[in-house]
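Sample intake sheet
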Amino acid sequence: IDHQLNLATEAYLASETQYDAQTNSIVAPRILSWFRGDFGGRRGIIELLVQSGRVPADAPNPRLTFGDYDWTLSLDA
């Protein structure tokens, strides 16, 4: 189960996270902001994004912002 959860996390972060190397900025999913305490705050979120390969490990103190959350339902499954 842990492996499946890790795969789902990586897929979600890959689709919802943008890193711009020129501006050294991250736009992360809004849900990470809502539960930032669970992730260890700003630093913990950045570490998660580095570990998942969304942000380079050598990125010097990237600017972190959060995207909008899409509240619409996709029922075309």
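Comment: The chain has three helices and three strands. The first strand starts at residue 18 and ends at 20.
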